[in-house]
Structure to design on (365 residues):
């Protein structure tokens, strides 16, 4: 049984259909990152799962306990006793921390256990000190939030969520208010804390690099629908559609207009790869930046605009008539690029074809 199970979840705000049909299972011990552009429904899904918003339809279960489930087409919701039990399953951390500025770190962490859950002050403070040590914040228990950095405040917010010993930790854009350096440091801290505590974690973010670095699985959302779920590298290597391919990757995937003809994948007048399994048709061709190999005999010829040496790698900025935007190829720095054009052969594993209308991926071989 999944620790958190969401089936056919729907949510609208007036005429705006935010969640259309969300399905997700989170197993105990997993770290799941939910990613997608703004407006895709990520935070609304999390808010429905934490009772902050009321879902219109669908099923949400925590370890078999129903928060909402459908019976004969009607939504049946948890009663007060069930809600109390379900809320004990999860701890929630927001992007803006929500720390009480006039409380010390210790009181921020222990206020709810002592005054809501009825835990003794001594026991709550004992747990808080253990968590502060795990968070790397020993000695900060008598500080006020204004005396801490943004990353430290975020870790206090996580400690506050963990002090009640939830089964699952839910993080809603927890790093979006931090600068780039602090984001990197704090996400490493979150991953370390998860490994040490073993707590199941669902992490909502719009940052695909953040998601891929911290999670066991990623859930890619768009317009209220889940597009793909899988291990980060698997989703990167085998996107189900062009949206997923374009959303993941830095630099982003390069997209060309192409065609499949005579068992070959064509870009312009160049047959770039065999495509024995695909029917003749027009397609979009996605090539990851690392999918280009400089080769004087290579089939794909591009116009060179800039060569940027980045230490170990070189970025070749170029163009092709079949591409609507500039192409960026990442190659080994040992390759010397000179002249106005460059020819490439392609790594088959880094090339995907997509249906011109549905934008779904097409198997080439």
């Amino acid at each position: 049984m999944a620790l958190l199970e969401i089936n056919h979840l729907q949510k609208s705000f007036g005429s705006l259909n935010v969640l259309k049909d969300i399905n997700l299972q989170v197993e105990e011990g997993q770290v799941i990152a939910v990613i997608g552009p703004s407006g895709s429904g990520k935070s609304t899904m999390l808010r429905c799962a934490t009772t902050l918003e009321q879902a219109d339809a669908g099923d949400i279960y925590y370890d078999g306990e129903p928060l909402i489930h459908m019976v004969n087409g009607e939504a049946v919701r948890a009663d007060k006793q069930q809600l109390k039990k379900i809320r004990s399953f999860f701890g929630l951390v927001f992007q803006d921390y929500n720390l009480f500025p006039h409380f010390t770190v210790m009181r921020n962490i222990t206020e709810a256990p002592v005054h809501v859950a009825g835990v003794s002050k001594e026991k709550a403070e004992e747990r808080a000190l253990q968590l502060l040590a795990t968070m790397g914040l020993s000695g900060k228990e008598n500080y006020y939030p204004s005396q801490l950095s943004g990353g430290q405040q975020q870790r206090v917010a996580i400690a506050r969520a963990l002090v009640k010993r939830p089964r699952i930790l839910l993080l809603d854009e927890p790093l979006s208010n931090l600068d780039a350096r602090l984001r990197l440091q704090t996400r490493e801290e979150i991953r370390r804390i998860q490994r040490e505590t073993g707590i199941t974690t669902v992490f909502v973010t719009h940052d695909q690099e953040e998601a891929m670095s911290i999670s066991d699985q990623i859930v890619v959302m768009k317009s209220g629908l889940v597009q793909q779920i899988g291990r980060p590298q698997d989703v990167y290597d085998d996107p189900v559609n062009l949206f997923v391919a374009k959303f993941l990757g830095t630099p982003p995937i390069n997209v060309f207009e192409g065609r499949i003809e005579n068992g070959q994948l064509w870009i312009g007048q160049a047959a770039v790869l065999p495509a024995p399994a695909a029917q003749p048709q027009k397609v979009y061709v996605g090539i990851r930046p690392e999918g280009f190999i400089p080769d004087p005999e290579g089939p794909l010829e591009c116009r060179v605009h800039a060569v940027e040496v980045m230490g170990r790698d070189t970025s070749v900025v170029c163009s092709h008539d079949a591409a609507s935007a500039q192409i960026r190829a990442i190659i080994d720095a040992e390759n010397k690029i000179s002249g106005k054009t460059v020819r490439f052969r392609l790594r088959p594993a880094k090339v995907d074809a997509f249906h011109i209308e549905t934008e779904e991926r097409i198997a080439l071989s």
The CA atoms of residues 13 and 247 lie 26 Å apart.
